[in-house]
Design brief:
Length: about 450
């Protein structure tokens, strides 16, 4: 049973099978926030919404409160209403006798919170629907697992951590069997929570795993990804382990990607709109223009694909397969946008985002820019053949500062997302950059301490 309705929940509550419900929404970083309530209160009142603080959209990943126009002391650090989307109600298997539901966020006047990632994605899905288009997506996210806890990593100052395994296991079956106790539990619990898994594999990094979620309609895919990332971190902690989705957790090890696949279908979900066997490279006109929009606006949307200082450390390491060019190719993993599949399986893979990205925002940016390409008939260059990293193709932004500047100047992003949204995420980038600028790093101490 992967989804519940209110009648099923009531029966399970009466039988003592469910005692509490986690009501969660998604913040700017893709993390879950909300409250855990008794199931009786959920059924009586909380199913219609609870109040949470707008601060959840006004601080960074470590809860540093920033100077956001949307929420500050002048606004009273106000409340918002978090309303469960009852179509997402499900069991939460790794937390005994618990159900879970994702929510949308509204202002007290009933209007949507414009800067909320789930609302942003729903807006682009509605725009696609108005054009007779339905988007499907899939995520491939990598993460590291360590034989550490929150307490031990702090005691070690986040250095010299012991990984789940000490050597690369890319595609190896051996470690998947040795570590099946934990990894198998991830798959079983996520599937029981309505997050169907396509495959699990070892990656190149020490202690690095990739777990692929099966494709679904775009909003469902983003929901699955948020639950997946939160669930893996929780299950790791419950088993004396620690998982991280940092894009580049160690300079000497592989980065963690958040590759995102997208395909476009007619409103009935019957016909793949990207594919045309007679078209150049097997692409339809719609497919060419959608890709053209994604490529044209990638530098301006980069903040949503790579939102942190650390994100660009992964992209700087092109030898690991992380792309840093505005390029596309046919089944070419060196390009930023990879076209693969034929007929019903035709899709684009955006290889730019890291595991640290918020996939509601990734899909928002991909859809907004792709639909922009269709409307403006933005065509594509010839596909890159060979290694895109060694060819004369334009580069993506190489730092958060450059990405911020591109978004700030982008008239297209402002027209597609709205000034309030763009300005809000620019303020988030400023908070991140200012915080980093004040930090004294290990690199600085090693380089300067003795010799200056």
């Amino acid at each position: 049973m992967s989804r519940l309705d209110l009648a099923q929940l009531a029966r399970m509550a009466e039988g003592g099978e469910i005692r509490s419900v986690v009501i969660a929404a998604v913040d700017m970083q893709g993390k879950l926030f909300g409250k855990r309530v008794p199931v009786s209160y959920f059924l009586e009142e909380a199913k219609d919404g609870i109040h949470t603080c707008a601060l959840n959209f006004a601080w960074d990943v470590s809860l540093n409160f920033g100077a956001f126009d949307y929420c500050n002391w002048d606004t009273g650090v106000h409340d918002i209403k978090t309303v469960p989307d009852l179509t997402t109600l499900r069991p939460y298997p790794w937390s005994p006798k618990t159900a879970f539901v994702l929510s949308d966020t509204y202002e007290k006047d009933g209007s949507e919170v414009a800067v909320a990632p789930r609302n942003m994605l729903k807006k682009q899905i509605a725009e696609a629907a108005s054009m007779g288009i339905k988007a499907f997506a899939a995520s491939e996210i990598e993460f590291y697992v360590f034989k550490e806890t929150s307490e031990t990593v702090r005691a070690k100052n986040f250095t010299d951590l012991k990984p789940l395994f000490e050597y690369p296991i890319d595609y190896s079956i051996y470690r998947l069997t040795v570590d099946h106790g934990f990894l198998g539990m991830l798959v079983e619990n996520l599937e029981a929570a309505g997050v169907p898994i396509e495959a699990l594999k070892g990656e190149w990094g020490k202690g690095q795993i990739e777990l692929n979620v099966r494709y679904a309609e775009a909003l469902e895919m983003a929901d699955r990804t948020a639950i997946y990332k939160n669930g893996i971190k929780e299950m790791a902690a419950l088993n004396g382990l620690m998982a991280t989705f940092m894009a580049k957790q160690d300079a000497g090890d592989s980065g963690s990607s958040g590759h995102t696949h997208i395909s476009l279908w007619d409103s009935e979900g019957e016909t793949n709109l990207l594919s045309d066997p007679e078209g150049e490279c097997g692409l339809s006109e719609t497919g060419r223009y959608f890709l053209g929009g994604m490529m044209a606006l990638a530098p301006e949307m980069m903040l949503f694909y790579a939102p942190y200082i650390n994100s660009y450390k992964r992209l700087a390491d092109f030898g690991s397969g992380a792309p840093n060019t505005i390029s596309w190719g046919i089944d070419n993993r060196s390009t930023s946008f990879r076209f693969d599949g034929k007929g019903r399986s035709a899709r684009f893979e955006n290889r730019v985002p890291g595991a640290d990205a918020n996939h509601y925002l990734v899909l928002t940016a991909m859809l907004a820019s792709g639909l922009y390409g269709i409307k403006n008939r933005i065509d594509i260059p010839a596909p890159v053949k060979g290694n895109a990293g060694t060819q004369a193709v334009p580069l993506l932004p190489s730092s958060l500062m450059e990405a911020r500047d591109n978004l700030e100047r982008s008239e297209a992003a402002r027209s597609l997302l709205g000034d309030a949204v763009v300005n809000h995420y620019l303020q988030a980038a400023k908070l991140e950059i200012d915080d980093f600028s004040k930090a004294v790093t290990d690199w600085e101490r090693k380089k300067y301490f003795e010799f200056i």
